[in-house]
Fold:
Amino acid sequence: MLPYADDNPADGPPVMTIGLILLNLFIFLMGLRLDERQLFELHVNNGFIPARIEQLFDPTVEVAVPANAVLRFGPHIKHLPIMLPLPPNRGQILLTLVTCQFLHGGWMHLLGNMLFLYIFGNNVEDRLGHLAYLLFYLVGGIAAMLAHYLVNPVSVIPTIGASGAVATILGAYAVTWPHSRIHTILPLGIIFIPLQLPAYLVLGFWFGSQLLDGWLKWGVDLGGGVAFFAHVGGFIFGAAVMALVNQIKGSPMNPRLTTE
Structure:
């Protein structure tokens, strides 16, 4: 299912949501100007690499990333005959938990994340307020990367993308507006069927698919594939935090199950 809109208008302008989308787009476009080696180094130095967490506690640990570890991140990276060693720089390692959220490997990677952020982010921003929403987004992205680390602690594959942070927004939306109507497209071969489904079905299906795919690929070296447990961790974090917010602030009015 591919969602493209919802029937849940926000009260105010989604300033931070639009800002995050524009920032991600700007960084991606700047990356298109880099050559292969520069792009490789950008992703390695600013992507989150689980194996580097051990360097925080033991600076003698050596971590090096081969070029083929990032081959699948985009068409601009080709097989480079280099191995990039990474120093045990604690500040840089911790910073990658945030910088990785603003790097994308290709147009589909970027547009998919930004579409979900655009659909679901405005209501969460409206609920939390602009600054709290930004903090929630960034911390959720960090939580997602730590979830990825827990199941891939020795991986040297750089993890990039806003998916974990966006998953946090999806979890928050799911527990706050479960009955909001989501406009989706269901592809059946060459036929595309438009549907309006409640958020708990659309987002529940998305979460279930991430959990299933993550379980099926547990322990498999994905070679730059999808970090499914980052999505799972981000979603759970967002749902848990927003459930607490709803307890404190009270639940908002949910859109009706049917539209007129």
About this structure: The radius of gyration is 19 Å. Residues 67 and 81 are 7 Å apart (CA to CA). Residues 2-249 form a domain with the Rhomboid-like fold fold (CATH 1.20.1540.10). The longest helix spans residues 107-128.
